[in-house]
Amino acid sequence: AKLCRVVALQELSLRPLEILKMSLYRNTVWFLKGLQEYTKGGYEAAARSFSEADLEVNVSGRSFIITGANSGIGRAAACEIAKRGGTVHLVCRNEDRANEARKDIVERCKNENVHVHLVDMSSPRKVWEFASGFSQKHNLHVLINNAGCMVNQRELTEDGLEKNFATNTLGRKVDSWTYVLTTALIPTLKKSENPRVITVSSGGMLVQKLNVEELQFEKGSFDGTMAYAQNKRQQVIMTEQWAAQHKEIHFSSMHPGWADTPAVQSSMPDFHAKMKNKLRTEAQGADTVVWLAISDAASRQPSGLFFQDRKAVSTHLLLASSRSSPAEDQKLMSKLEELAVKFKC
């Protein structure tokens, strides 16, 4: 409860009373929900209803891109897909860690079809360049937008974009990834059988309502945790919008729960210290990613939904006043398109 109050009270100084009350309500309900559902115990309870047959799939001949795949949930997902014969493309920023991850996955999964692509994911231009080059050389069946970052003070990329926004929204958890990468690869995905796009979001988005007028957090004090949650809300809305626009592709977003990953350890050290005995393993956090990427059961679900532990769940807390209007959702997509085009090759 103390941790929950700290997160909520970070917004005290600059918010009107009505917004403050709603923020406190959202954070309190979300944290209590998290203790029950997002922890290791929550996963174990949900897993009792999982069908083992869902993941008894051979995906030889299918090609997967996984961003941020050199550690954490991305690496765990890559390993599970490689075990089942998939061709896995690891998109990473750090060459040494990427090569180490590839070597480990190949040895453990007995699959040589694991490839490393080095991309500066904080640069929209580099993302466009990568997608263009990839499409000329490879086919693609599944895109997993997993890479991400949480910056605790406002920083700008070399392109003048706020770093959380650049990574988690424009691109994807990693400076400018999700929107640009997905948009650039949609034509390639449409050429494949049963194409899918999975975006690893966060339950933290439940505490935020879309603020389409402040995409890069240029006003007021900067809170990295809240910026990250706002980016995750944007990702969920993007998934819904893409699903409506591109019927040939199955889109989904998901929450991996609270997992013990290097990213959590480095970006939220206090949270990790308090919760480390309750956090999920990386494999548990990756389970729904893998399920969405390869199972027939997932492809039978409607496109555009938000998943937690292999089930579609609400994108809003009860009475949280976090819903945006269709006009606001469309405005988000228009603004992202406007920004992305500036960096297109």
Secondary structure elements and their pairing?
Blueprint: H1 2-9, H2 17-37, H3 40-47, E1 63-67, H4 72-83, E2 87-92, H5 95-109, E3 114-118, H6 124-137, E4 142-145, H7 163-171, H8 178-189, E5 196-200, H9 224-245, E6 250-255, H10 262-267, H11 269-275, H12 282-294, H13 296-299, E7 305-308, E8 311-312, H14 326-342
Parallel strand pairs: 1-2, 1-4, 2-3, 4-5, 5-6, 6-7
Antiparallel strand pairs: 7-8
Helix share, percent? 40-55%
CATH class: Alpha Beta
Amount of beta strand: 5-15%
Q: Would you tell me the structural class of the helices and strands?
A: alpha/beta
N-to-C order of helices and strands: HHHEHEHEHEHHEHEHHHHEEH
Overall average pLDDT = 86
Protein name: Dehydrogenase/reductase SDR family member 12-like
Pfam families: adh_short
Organism: Sinocyclocheilus anshuiensis
InterPro entries: NAD(P)-bd_dom_sf (IPR036291), SDR_fam (IPR002347), SDR_member_12 (IPR052992)
Structure, explained:
This protein is α/β, with parallel strands linked by helices and 345 residues long. It has one domain (53-342): NAD(P)-binding Rossmann-like Domain (Rossmann fold). 49% of the residues lie in helices and 11% in strands. It has 14 helices and 8 strands. Strands 3-2-1-4-5-6-7-8 form an 8-stranded mixed β-sheet, with helices on both faces. A hairpin with a 2-residue loop joins β7 and β8. α7 runs parallel beside α8 (178-189). The longest helix is centred in the C-terminal third of the chain and has 22 residues, at 224-245. 47% of the residues are buried. The model is unreliable at 1-16, 150-157 and 160-176 (pLDDT under 50).
